[in-house]
Amino acid sequence: MRLSGRSILAIAVFLGVVGLIVGGRSYEARRAASESFSNTTAVSVTNGADRGAGTLREALFLVATAPGPAHITLEVPKISLLTALPPIVNTHGVRIVAGPGGSEIDAGALSGSGPVLDVAAANVALDGLAIANCANTGILVRAVHFSLQNATLQACDVGVDVAGNADDLLLAGNRFVNDRVGVRFAASSPGTTVASNLFSGEKDAGVWAVRGQPDLGVAAINIHDNRFDADHAGIVAGNLSALIEQNQITGAQSTAIDLVGAGVVVRGNHVSGGSGMGIVADGAHAAVIERNDLHGLAAYGIMIRGSSNALVSTNRLYDCAYGLAFVLGDPRNPSTAVDNTIIEPRYDGIDVIGDAPILRNNQVIMPHAFALRVADFTRPDGSKVVSQPFLDHNSFPPPAKNAVAALRGRSLRQ
C-alpha cells in the first residue's frame, strides 16, 4: 500500500512531536539531577588541626547554613580536637564520611563536658569515622533519622548517647571498644535498630537502655545480631520496649543480659563463658526469656529475682554452675518456666528460694547436685518466706541418684 504525500507529512509531524516530548523529558530529568547535585554542599576536611581553614570545625560551620543537604569528606587520617565543635544543625541532612584511608577524631585533649559530635538535626549519617579518647560522650543524638555505620568508638565515657526525643535510628557495623558504655538510651526509641556491632571491653555495659519509669506501648528498640566480648555486662535494659535477639555474648564479667522493670523480650541469644550470670531479671515484670542457649557460665544461667509474671521458655543450658533460679518473686503473679532443658549443671538444675514459680515440662539431665532444690527464705526479722513451686510434668532424675530436695529445715537467711 502506497502512502500519500499528506499521510507521509502527518507521520513525520507525529514522530517529530514524539521526539520533542522524549527529548524534553530527558532534558528535564538531566536538569533535575543536575540541580539536585548542585544543591548539595560538598566540603572536604584537609586539615587535622582544631581550627582554621580546611578543618572539621570550618566544615560544620559551612554546612550549618547550606540551602540544601551537605556532604563532608574527612580526607585526613587524624583530627585533634582542643575545644568543642559546633552542633550539626542543617535541617536538610548531613552526611559525614571518612576517606578511603579512614579518619580518627582524637578527643584526648578536648576541654569541656560536651560531646565530640552533637547531632541536633534530623537526617544525619556518619560512615567510617573513628572517635577516640573522649572523657564524655562520643556522639550525642537528639534528633530523628540518624545513621551510624562502620565507625569505631574507643575509650569514651559513652560511645553513642541517645536522647529521649530521638527515634528511627540505625547503628550498624560499628565497633565499641573499652568505653564505659557503648550505646545508651534515655527512653524508648521507636524504629531504632542496633545490629551487627561489636562491643568489647565495655566497663559498665555494651548497651544500656533503662528508664526510671515505664515508657512502653511504642515500637521496640531492636537489638540483634551483635557480638559482645568480655564486657562487664552485655546489655542492661528495662522500662522501655526492647527486643534483644540473636546476639552472641561471650565472657561477661557480671551479667550477659540484665533486665529491670518491664517491656523487654530476650530471644534466641547465645551466651557463653564469663565469671558472672547469663540472664537476670531483677525486679522485672512480664519479661519474656525464650529460646536462648547458655553454656559454660560460672554462676546461674538464668535468674528470676524479685519479679512477677516472667516467662522462661524453651531455653537450653549446659555446663553451667547452676541452671535456673527463682528468688523472692510475687506469689500472686508467679513466674513460669516451661520446656527448658538443663544438661549437666555442675551443681543444681533449678533452685527455688522463697518463691512460688510454675515449673512445667522442664528437663534436668545429669545434675551434679540436685535437679530441684527448694528452700524457704528467712528475713532479718525472723519471718519466713515459704517456697511453694507448682510442679507439672517435669523430668528430674530419680531421687535415688539425684534427689528432689525440699530443704524446709535449712531455710536461707538474708
Could you please describe the fold and organization of this structure?
With 414 residues, the protein is mainly β. The protein has a domain at 40-166. The chain contains 2 helices and 42 strands. A 15-stranded parallel β-sheet has the order 1-2-4-7-10-13-16-19-22-25-28-31-34-37-41, with helices on one face. Strands 6, 9, 12, 15, 18, 21, 24, 27, 30, 33, 36, 39, 40 and 42 form a 14-stranded mixed β-sheet that branches. A 13-stranded parallel β-sheet has the order 3-5-8-11-14-17-20-23-26-29-32-35-38, with no helix packed on it. It starts with a helix and ends with a strand.
Q: Topology of this protein?
A:
Layout: H1 5-38, E1 41-45, H2 56-64, E2 70-74, E3 78-80, E4 94-98, E5 103-106, E6 117-119, E7 124-127, E8 129-132, E9 137-141, E10 146-149, E11 152-154, E12 158-162, E13 170-172, E14 175-177, E15 181-185, E16 193-195, E17 198-200, E18 205-215, E19 221-224, E20 227-229, E21 233-240, E22 242-245, E23 248-250, E24 255-262, E25 264-267, E26 270-272, E27 277-285, E28 288-290, E29 293-295, E30 300-305, E31 311-313, E32 316-318, E33 322-327, E34 336-338, E35 341-343, E36 350-353, E37 358-360, E38 363-365, E39 372-378, E40 384-385, E41 390-392, E42 405-413
Parallel strand pairs: 1-2, 2-4, 3-5, 4-7, 5-8, 6-9, 7-10, 8-11, 9-12, 10-13, 11-14, 12-15, 13-16, 14-17, 15-18, 16-19, 17-20, 18-21, 19-22, 20-23, 21-24, 22-25, 23-26, 24-27, 25-28, 26-29, 27-30, 28-31, 29-32, 30-33, 31-34, 32-35, 33-36, 34-37, 35-38, 36-39, 37-41, 39-42
Antiparallel strand pairs: 39-40
The fraction of residues assigned to DSSP E strands is 35-45%
What is the average of the pLDDT values?
Answer: 89
Shape: elongated
Reported for the largest beta sheet, the result is: 15 strands, parallel
**Strand runs, count:** 42
Rounded to the nearest angstrom, the radius of gyration is: 29 Å
Q: How many separate helices?
A: 2
